[in-house]
């Protein structure tokens, strides 16, 4: 899609100003759930988002019944979540990295779609759904292996062809009381997917890696994040303190709008496509 096409379809866009702010600069990128909606994964905060009560780390660790509910819902959503495909926005960011315009990417998403689209320097700030870790002994397992154990121990959990997918790969199960949840095969401890739950801190290694991407860039591009979560907003503040141009693409307001040099109120996929079409030529 061309810049002119986007400007005709969305009067609030100022793609030309975004290009001027980003062209010729090394770009750090921060993405959120709004980037993955075109892949069929809903976000928590969009206007049409389903009403959700995300699992907190306190409930997961301290309440066996809630942990069981989480594992059933997460398993039912796993195949659908894992079968989603990168969209044009993911592809545009990978293209910009390969062209040398994007220096690195920080994502708040756990879907792994940036890596599957071909982006290479990716910091998954809130973890990912590909791995599982024992909270007691630290043993790590692949999600596929844990999913196979869940289905072996609970034949009733035949994965449906279509499920109501949540932003974190979870669905809302109708029943879970009799389900056997997986435990660590090394020590029998509690297993947890490698995602940052609500109420949990971002691991220091991910935090440092995200800071390094912002510090090593000359401009910051935010795509599909309302910046309501502090882990993302702190990176915008970090860029602002460094005097870097900040461009935000998001449908609706964000917590970082007052820090943005350019705010584009529109869908991420078509906007990123248009930006990539111009910025790759300016590298």
From TrEMBL:
Keywords: Acyltransferase, Metal-binding, NAD, Transferase, Zinc
EC class: transferase
Residue positions binding Zn(2+): 134, 137, 184, 187
Limits of the Deacetylase sirtuin-type domain: 5-283
EC number: 2.3.1.286
Signal peptide: none
Gene3D superfamilies cross-referenced by the UniProt entry: SIR2/SIRT2 'Small Domain, TPP-binding domain
InterPro entries for the chain: DHS-like_NAD/FAD-binding_dom (IPR029035), NAD-dep_sirtuin_deacylases (IPR050134), Sirtuin (IPR003000), Sirtuin_cat_small_dom_sf (IPR026591), Ssirtuin_cat_dom (IPR026590)
GO molecular function: histone deacetylase activity, NAD-dependent; metal ion binding; NAD+ binding
Pfam families: SIR2
Active site residues of this protein: 126 (proton acceptor)
PANTHER family referenced in this protein's UniProt entry, alphabetically: NAD-DEPENDENT PROTEIN DEACYLASE SIRTUIN-5, MITOCHONDRIAL-RELATED (PTHR11085:SF10)
The protein's name in its UniProt record: protein acetyllysine N-acetyltransferase
Source organism: Demequina capsici
């Amino acid at each position: 899609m061309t810049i002119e096409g986007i400007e005709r379809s969305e009067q609030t866009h100022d793609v030309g100003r975004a290009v001027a702010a980003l062209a010729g600069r090394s770009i750090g990128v921060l993405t959120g759930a709004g980037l993955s909606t075109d892949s069929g994964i809903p976000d928590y905060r969009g206007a049409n988002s389903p009403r959700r009560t995300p699992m907190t780390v306190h409930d997961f660790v301290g309440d066996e019944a809630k942990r069981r509910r989480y594992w059933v819902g997460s398993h039912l959503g796993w195949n659908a979540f894992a079968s989603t495909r990168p969209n044009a926005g993911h592809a545009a960011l990978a293209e910009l990295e390969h062209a040398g315009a994007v220096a690195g990417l920080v994502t708040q998403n756990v879907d792994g779609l940036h890596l599957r689209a071909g982006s290479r320097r990716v910091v998954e700030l809130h973890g990912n759904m590909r791995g599982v870790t024992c909270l007691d002994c630290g043993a790590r397992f692949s999600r596929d292996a844990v999913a196979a154990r869940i289905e072996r121990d609970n034949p009733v959990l035949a994965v449906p062809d279509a499920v109501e997918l949540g932003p974190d790969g979870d669905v809302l199960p109708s029943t879970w009381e009799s389900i056997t949840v997986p435990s660590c095969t090394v020590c029998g401890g509690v297993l947890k997917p490698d995602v940052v739950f609500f109420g949990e801190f971002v691991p220091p290694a991910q935090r440092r890696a995200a800071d390094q991407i912002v510090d090593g860039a000359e401009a910051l591009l935010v795509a599909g994040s309302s910046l309501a979560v502090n882990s993302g907003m702190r990176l915008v503040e970090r860029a602002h303190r460094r005097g870097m141009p900040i461009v935000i693409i998001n449908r609706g307001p964000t917590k970082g709008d007052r820090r943005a040099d350019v705010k584009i109120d529109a869908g991420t996929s078509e906007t990123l496509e248009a930006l990539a079409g111009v910025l790759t030529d300016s590298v």
